[in-house]
Design a protein that fits this description.
The complex is a heterodimer of chains A (about 500) and B (about 130). In chain A, about 55% of the residues lie in helices and about 20% in strands. Chain A contains 12 helices and 12 strands. In chain A, strand 9 and strand 10 form a beta hairpin. Chain B has a 5-stranded parallel sheet with strand order 2-1-3-4-5, with helices on both faces. In chain B, helix 1 packs across helix 5 and helix 2 packs parallel to helix 3. The longest helix of chain B is centred in the N-terminal third of the chain and has 13 residues. Classes of the chains: A alpha+beta (about 500), B alpha/beta (about 130).
């Protein structure tokens, strides 16, 4: 509402009243004077009526003046009342504008001040409320976000409250412990979680009450009937007042880790045993020599040769173990170049020939033209082929045959190398294990002692380093065929 | 009469060394490459002492001992093993092994044990 100049208005009402009063008094005074004059002239009778008329007129005028005054006031008050009513209805706060006279200013001015103050307070509260709503929405969104994160964690997460009721659980927990969150929410974990040890752990953690973190190794049966091992971490959720409001349990699947750890321990134990065996021979023979148990030069020579060959065996063993370890841990240095498999196989056959001749074994070769090349580490490829060929010769009895082929499949652009023997073969149940470290086929132990690592190393070289595949077929008593493929270079 | 010792090991060199050492010390030595062979010749030869490796294909040294003890024989047994830490004390006592020698072993030391076990009958048959 536009500001009005109130300076002129208060005078208007007083002016009116003054004017009215003056008129009335003048009129009354005139009438009284006239009446007195008449009375002094002894015209009392006729003038009694005049007195009544004058009285009546004065009374009427007075009434009119009062009426007018009253109406003005009423209208002003009504106007103010209407304005306040409009304000209430519309909800908009404003100022009250008095109409006409300003006899109500003592009220309207403080009222308007009050209305102004109230309006600014309401505005402030409204804006605070808007802020709080925004914050509440943000908090709600963050809560959803965190719940989504918890849901997607692959470890099973379970949150309980101080009454051991389920509050939060993610999909991994549902799958592992066999429940559905929407049906189990706010139920006691007793009836929800199938593993009683976990229930007990959660209860204990809650009752211990401090914000401690506990780790426990635990076994849980998964639904498929497989037993898996979990590392469970439990901690208390604390209120700011240091009271326990719940427990968080996280289950991390450590089955694979434990398995790997066990394999490592087994490997170390195996290596130790394998290395001690040739070493034991060396030490024993040396001690015999020192103690003079070999009195003639022939025996002494025999001992020296045995010591030498056992030392070689030990060296080969260590070399193989190191190579395999290096390949497994990825630190091996690989020199990739264009290598002709035919050339490599020829070299291997040259070296293997004397041993084959000793056992009267025929070495047959069927090799692709030299110009076919693969991208490979020459030394490693040589080692792999050598291991296959020397195995073939070792495990083939006298008079047998070892056939080595290098062929090229032009359609698939691969070079295939195959080593086939007519040897003792491998039993079907042991076939899956022959590439294991230190594995030796029991039935064939009479054929010769090996490190048990030859095939392991070959497999690592072909598969891990060169991305190829080493395959075997075998029939006990008939023979074995090992083969691998490598992509041909254009 | 010289005492008879049976040595069982799948390593030819070990058999060679041990037999030579014991033979030079005056013992009669028989050898076997595995447990089956040992059990085959046991009834006919009846050795006074058994020396066996632990880790062997087809039948471990422990199994061999258990079989012999089950048959009621009380011959002293010395076990050679590269896996000393794998053997539990009660396992050995149960199988009636008199003494254990870790590989690499000293032939001298082995001879010493053989001498002491065969010289003192009280040390035989199932006591550590």
């Amino acid at each position: 509402m536009a500001a009005r100049d109130y300076r002129g208005s208060p005078v208007t009402t007083a002016k009116r009243l003054g004017l009215a009063g003056v008129s009335l008094i003048s009129l009354g005074a005139s009438a009284a004077y006239f009446a007195t004059m008449m009375a002094m002239r002894n015209r009392i009778e006729a003038e009694t009526n005049l007195n009544y008329v004058v009285l009546g007129a004065v009374a009427a005028l007075t009434a009119v003046v009062l009426l007018v005054f009253h109406r003005t006031m009423s209208r002003s008050i009504e106007s103010i009342g209407r304005q306040l009513g409009d304000m209430t209805k519309s909800g908009q706060m404003g100022l009250v504008m008095p109409e006409g006279g300003d006899e109500l200013t003592p009220i309207t001015q403080p009222l308007n001040e009050f209305l102004t103050a109230t309006k600014s307070q309401v505005d402030r509260l409204r804006s605070e409320n808007r802020e709080l709503q925004i914050q509440s929405r943000i908090a709600e969104a963050e809560k959803h976000h965190i719940e989504a994160i918890i849901f997607s964690i692959s470890d099973a997460v379970i949150v309980t409250n101080r009454f051991d009721e389920l509050v939060i659980a993610n999909e991994a927990a549902e799958k592992l412990l066999g429940f559905k969150l929407d049906r189990s929410l706010h139920r006691n974990i007793d009836g929800v979680i199938s593993d009683s040890t976990l229930v007990r752990l959660i209860r204990e953690t809650r009752s211990h009450g401090r914000s401690q973190i506990r780790k426990v190794m635990e076994e849980t049966i998964e639904q498929k009937g497989l037993s898996r091992t979990f590392s469970i971490t439990l901690s208390c959720v604390m209120t700011p007042a240091e009271e326990v409001s719940g427990v968080v349990a996280v289950l991390h699947d450590v089955t694979r880790e434990k398995e790997i750890s066990r394999m490592k321990t087994d490997f170390v134990s195996n290596v130790s045993h394998e290395l001690k065996t040739p070493l034991a021979s060396i030490k024993a023979y040396v001690e015999m020599l020192v103690d003079g148990e070999a009195d003639d030069p022939a025996t002494q020579r025999e001992f020296y040769e045995i010591i030498a060959s056992e030392a070689d065996r030990l060296e080969r063993l260590i070399e193989n173990i190191l190579n395999i370890s290096r390949i497994e841990s990825g630190v091996v240095k690989v020199v990739r170049e264009a290598v002709s498999p035919t050339v490599v196989v020829k070299e291997v056959l040259d070296v293997a020939a004397p041993q084959a001749r000793l056992k009267n074994i025929a070495l047959v070769e069927l090799l692709a033209p030299v110009y076919y090349q693969v991208e490979a580490d020459r030394d490693m490829l040589y080692q792999a082929v050598m291991n296959l060929v020397s195995n073939a010769v070792k495990y083939t009895p006298d008079g047998g045959t070892v056939k080595v082929t290098v062929s090229v499949d032009e359609r698939r652009d691969v070079a295939v190398c195959q080593v086939a023997d007519t040897g003792v073969g491998i039993p079907a149940d042991e076939l899956p294990h022959i590439f294991d470290k230190f594995y030796r086929v029991r039935a064939n132990s009479k054929q010769g002692k090996g490190t048990g690592l030859g095939l392991t190393l070959a497999k690592h070289i072909i598969e891990t380093v060169h991305d190829g595949k080493l395959m075997v077929t075998s029939e006990q008593g008939k023979g074995s065929t090992f083969s691998f493929e490598l992509p041909v270079m254009a | 009469m010289s005492k008879k010792v049976l040595v069982v090991d799948d390593e030819a060199h070990i058999l060679h060394v041990v037999s030579m050492k014991l033979k030079n010390a005056g013992y009669e030595v028989l050898t076997a490459m595995d447990g089956e062979e040992a059990l085959d010749i046991w009834p006919s030869e009846n050795p006074d002492l058994l020396i066996t490796d632990f880790q062997m294909p087809l039948m471990t040294g422990l199994e061999l001992c258990a079989r012999l003890r089950a048959d009621g024989c009380r011959t002293p047994i010395i076990m050679l093993t590269a896996r000393g830490f794998d053997l539990e004390a009660d396992e050995m006592a149960q199988a009636g092994i008199s003494s254990v020698l870790a590989k690499p072993f000293s032939p001298r030391e082995l001879l010493g044990k053989v001498d002491s076990l065969l010289a003192d009958p009280a040390k035989a048959g199932g006591k550590r």
